[in-house]
Prior knowledge:
By secondary structure, the protein is of the alpha/beta class. The protein is built from 8 helices and 15 strands. The chain folds into 2 domains: 4-135 and 257-337, FAD/NAD(P)-binding domain; 150-253, FAD/NAD(P)-binding domain (3-Layer(bba) Sandwich), CATH 3.50.50. A hairpin with a 3-residue loop joins strand 11 (225-229) and strand 12 (233-237). The longest helix has 14 residues, at 74-87. It is elongated, with a radius of gyration of 22 Å.
Amino acid sequence: MEDVLDVLVVGAGPTGLACAIEAIKSNFSVLVVEKGCLVNSIFSYPPGMTFFTTRERLEIGDIPFTSVNLKPTRAEALEYYRGVTEFYHVPVHFQERVVGVIGSDGNFEIHASASDGEQKCYRAQKVIIATGYYDIANLIGVPGEELPKVSHYYGDAHASYQRKVVVVGGANSAAIAALDLFRHGAEVTIVHCEPELSRHIKYWIRPDIENRIKEGSIRAYMESRVKEITQDAVWIEATQGERIRIENDFVYALTGYHPDFDFLHRVGIEVDSRTSRPSCNTKTRESNVPGIYLAGVVISGRHTNEIFIENGRFHGKQIITDIQKHLGIRPPRPKEETRTELVD
Length: 344
């Protein structure tokens, strides 16, 4: 058990880091607890990924994001967030999963489990949950989904060269994966439950995927559902109830992700049964549990296309402004503790 922190942040993604930086700027004692690595979700993106947004919309802590490209790459983003973390000396404990929060406003105990099995306990006056959503996939819920050939995340296309691949889903991630696989020599089939591809597909990607389907380079079964996955095939139920067997080597079930609702329930946060949105004050970002705040996409429930880095990064200022009203304004740190300039 350590001394009582002013603020503990759960999650070291861009939003969690932005919250911690605002706390540091206000001279609060702060710790970030992260179950994986720094900006773990971005690290999990495909190696060659390029962001859809421009670099200035990914900035946190008033640190410019310099890039040779208007739209930065995954590698550039990882380097940027490492640099910002170093500049502000953000204290982060990695490979520790927060499993519970007990106590009350001003006196919380935060319990975490480290990757080596060690149990940790921290104390903090305020808690900010910025856990994102990318780690929990929306399962299809069919026999065979647990097979090694099935993945809910898309990585590199090389291993699928001259292999038969089924991509389940019709949103942006599925479209990008299908195109990348096709261009790396895979035989690609899309299976989507809706009559047409999602309206959320980026405008410059939609004509590409639609034209590949139209010309037959990528096969697509619309209004169809996966019913079973076997070692060498995927069984789908197509229009009019027709059952079709698709010979197959790999499956990418890119059907979306959702926040850790079980964790929110354990903490005592109310979650709407219809929208899955947690209770949260829109001005302060405080949940129904006094002293526990929510930041980033975790606020949006299952509507994960509403909050991104671009708007979630501002939640830290809202939260810390409210925390200042409760904990007061901290005096400046001693001069010898001031931070050094960020260098390339």
